[in-house]
């Protein structure tokens, strides 16, 4: 008789581990180093300007597949667990807003070329951990 409740509890634990922490809100995905990572939001106090991991959102992308672009993910660089320092990326007249940007290095190259303007938005800093097991783009 003890086996059935134990099996049910084990199954629930497995489902919870796969879907993310209790109370987390799934926010979809983000591009990091030309791969797609799942992300989830959780309640956390992130005072304005205290984000540490660069994260860019696009204000005028014409590519329906464009997601946010982060510099770090688990196991890469100096990841701080998704404590995001938010930047707003806007295509300039010289850029191609239909282009899909999938890495921070690519974003920086476009900024240096004058195709994208990147502006820090410290008031938008937030916490949203990135989950492992990245998927290839496409």
Tell me about this structure:
The chain is α+β, with helices and mostly antiparallel strands and 138 residues long. The protein has one domain (22-136). 19% of the residues lie in helices and 30% in strands. Strands 1, 2, 3, 4, 5, 6, 7 and 8 form an 8-stranded mixed beta sheet that branches. Strand 1 and strand 2 (35-41) form a beta hairpin. It is globular. The termini are far apart. The relative contact order is 0.24. The model is unreliable at 5-24 (pLDDT under 50).
Mean pLDDT equals 81
Annotation field: number of helices: 2
- The radius of gyration computed from the alpha-carbon positions, rounded to a whole number of angstroms, is 18 Å
Order of helices and strands: HEEEEEHEEE
Helix and strand content put the structural class at alpha+beta
Low-confidence stretches: 5-24
**Helical content (DSSP H or I, runs of 4+):** 10-25%
**How big a fraction of the residues is strand?**
25-35%
Number of strands: 8
Largest sheet: 8 strands, mixed
Shape: globular
Taken together, the total number of domains comes to 1
Amino-to-carboxy terminus distance = 48 Å
Would you kindly provide a brief summary of this structure?
With 138 residues, the chain is α+β, with helices and mostly antiparallel strands. The protein is built from two helices and eight strands; from the N terminus they run αβββββαβββ. Strands 1, 2, 3, 4, 5, 6, 7 and 8 form an eight-stranded mixed β-sheet that branches.
């Amino acid at each position: 008789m003890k086996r059935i409740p134990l099996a049910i509890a084990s199954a629930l634990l497995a489902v919870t581990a796969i879907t993310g922490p209790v109370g987390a809100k799934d926010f979809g995905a983000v591009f990091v180093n030309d791969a797609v990572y799942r992300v989830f939001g959780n309640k956390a106090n992130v005072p304005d300007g205290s984000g540490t991991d660069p994260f860019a959102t696009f204000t005028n992308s014409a590519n329906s597949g464009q997601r946010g672009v982060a510099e770090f993910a688990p196991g890469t660089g100096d990841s701080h667990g998704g404590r995001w320092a938010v930047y707003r990326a806007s295509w300039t007249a010289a850029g191609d807003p239909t282009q899909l940007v999938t890495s921070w290095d690519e974003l920086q190259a476009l900024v240096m070329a004058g195709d994208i303007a990147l502006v820090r938005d410290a008031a938008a800093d937030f916490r949203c951990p990135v989950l492992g097991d990245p998927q290839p783009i496409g």
